[in-house]
Amino acid sequence: MKVQKIRTNNGGEFTSQAFICFYSHRGIAHQFSALNNPHQNGLVERKNQTVQEMASTMLTKSDLSLAFWGEAVNTIVYIINRYPTKAVSEMTP
Questions:
Q1: Are residues 31 and 60 in the same domain?
Q2: Dist CA 40 CA 42 (whole Å)
Q3: What predicted TM-score, i.e. pTM, was given to this entire model?
C-alpha cells in the first residue's frame, strides 16, 4: 500500500527542505500537529510510553546498565511488531 498522508509534530527535523521534497515527489500529504501538544497524537504517545516502560523493565530485571537502553528499545519494538493484533488476524503483522 502507498503512503498517502503523514502527520508529524512541527519539529524542525520534519520540516526540512529534504523532507518537503521527499513528500512532494511521492505525492504524500504532510500534515502537522500543533507544537508541544502531544495529546493530538495520543496513540503514538501511548505506544512510546509502553516501549519505554518495557525497556526499563527489561534492563532492571536483567541487571544491565543503561548503556544497553538502545538495544532494549530495539528488542521491544522487534517483539511488538511480531505479536498478533486484532487488525491482522491469524498472523503477525
A1: no
A2: 6
A3: 0.59
Q: Specify whether the CB–CB gap between 33 and 40 falls below 8 A.
A: yes
Residues 68 and 51 in one domain: yes
Domain that holds residue 76: 42-80
Contact indicator for 31, 6 with CB cutoff of 8 Å: yes
88 found inside a domain: no
Q: Name the one residue in this structure whose C-alpha cell is 502527520.
A: 7
- Is position 93 within any domain? no
Beta carbons of 53 and 47 less than 8 angstroms apart: no
Residues 78-87 pLDDT 10s: 998 888 877 7
Distance from C-alpha of 15 to C-alpha of 10, rounded to nearest angstrom: 7
